[in-house]
Amino acid sequence: MSDIDFWNRHSAQYLEMAFDTCHKEVLQNPDGYGKRTGDCGDTVQFFIKVKAGVLDQVSFFTQGCLNTTACCNTVATLARGKTVDQAWEITPDHVVDFLKTLPEDHEHCAQLAVGGFYLALSDFQTARKRDEKTA
């Protein structure tokens, strides 16, 4: 398969999310952090910062394939600006639909990305409840 086939086979959304690095960052002192490794061996880490109940910053770091990067970037894009409650509504199907051309045999990458993001949301909520108890 040629390089031209790759570029022609994928949607503009997939290509942007696969190669854009604007959300690929390890945030220092995040409000929430989640790390997950898939059966495929890819590892994703999500970092969130929350201001007034809204996801102000969402970033990720991944050791994985281009499909996992595209999925992580999509989650970050979909989540930023949403409330924490709204962010819980992001599903792997939303990621697949957004990308349009994620290969079927890599839909597990969307599950991995969303799962890592959910861990960051859960971490944030656990820390908030702990802080409320000590206040």
Features:
single chain; 3 strands; alpha+beta; Sufe protein. Chain: A; three-stranded antiparallel β-sheet; 51% helix; 135 residues
**CATH top level?**
Alpha Beta
Low-confidence stretches: none
Total count of helical runs of at least 4 residues: 6
What is the H/E string? HHEEEHHHH
The proportion of residues forming helix, as a percent range, comes to 40-55%
Terminal residue distance:
60 Å
Describe the protein's architecture and organization:
It is built from 6 helices and 3 strands, in the order ααβββαααα. 36% of the residues are buried. The model has no long low-confidence stretch (mean pLDDT 94). Helix 3 (66-79) packs across helix 5 (92-99). It has a 3-stranded antiparallel β-sheet with strand order 1-2-3. The chain has a single domain (3-134), classed as Alpha-Beta Complex (Sufe protein. Chain: A), CATH 3.90.1010. It has helices spanning 3-9, 12-19, 66-79, 84-87, 92-99, 107-134, and strands at residues 32-37, 43-51, 54-63. Strand 2 (43-51) and strand 3 (54-63) form a beta hairpin. By secondary structure, it is an alpha+beta fold.
